[in-house]
Every structure is written in structure tokens, then in C-alpha cells.
Amino acid sequence: MSRLREVTSREFDVNVLQGGRPTVVDFYAPWCGPCRMLAPLLEEIAGRYGDRVQFVKVNIDEAPDLANRYRVSGVPTLVLFFGGNEVVRVVGLPPQAVLDQKIGGLAQLAPSTS
């Protein structure tokens, strides 16, 4: 079972912008080879940070309005949100070390559960 939940245009604002948790949004397309290569890396990272960071994905073919709204001109594009605002953007297929650094930094913004 995927740790990245697909969200639609209708669900995006409530789940991402008003959700209260730091969120990684994977803008992807099913026909995109680099997107398919990125998916298992994100699954692994979500396994490590999923208790502090929410991971969702948006299919740009099914939600072109969100792609336009966030100026996604190429896929994959990861947009990291905190407090309803974009804090980091990663375009293309980055090395895993870059993903770990960016998402690890986002996880540090999460409120402590202890």
C-alpha cells in the first residue's frame, strides 16, 4: 500500500494548505519515466518521515488547475508546504541525498509530539 495518497483538486486545500502538517506534494504524470523512478524513493522516505510529514501526490493530467496554480511546468516536481505556504521546490529527479536533506528539513518544522 502506498504511503503517498493521491489528492484531487477538490481535496487539495483542505488536505495540504489547511492540514496543519508539513506536506510533500509530488506533482507527477503516469506517462513520465522520471516520475516512476522517483516514486520508490518517496515511498522509502515517507516510511521514515511519515509520522511528522504528510506525503501526497497530484496527477497533473487529472488536476491541471493545480499544476497551473503552482506553476508546475515539468514533472516530477516536488513542492514542500508548511503552514499553507510553499517552502521548498525540487524540479526533476534529484539524488536521494537531496531529497533526504529537503524533506528532513521540512520534518524539523513539524510540531513535537512528545
What string, H for helix and E for strand, traces the elements in order? Answer: EHEHEHEEH
Proper CATH architecture: 3-Layer(aba) Sandwich
Number of helices: 4
What is the rounded distance between the termini? 28 Å
Describe the structure.
The protein contains four helices and five strands. The chain has 114 residues and is of the alpha/beta class. The protein has one domain: Glutaredoxin, CATH 3.40.30.10. The protein has a five-stranded mixed sheet, with helices on both faces. Helix 2 (33-49) packs across helix 4. It is globular, with a radius of gyration of 13 Å.
List the helices and strands and how they pair.
Elements: E1 5-6, H1 9-17, E2 23-28, H2 33-49, E3 54-59, H3 64-69, E4 77-82, E5 85-91, H4 96-108
Parallel strand pairs: 1-3, 2-3
Antiparallel strand pairs: 2-4, 4-5
Using brief descriptors, characterize the structure shown:
single chain; 114 residues; alpha/beta; Glutaredoxin; 24% strand; globular
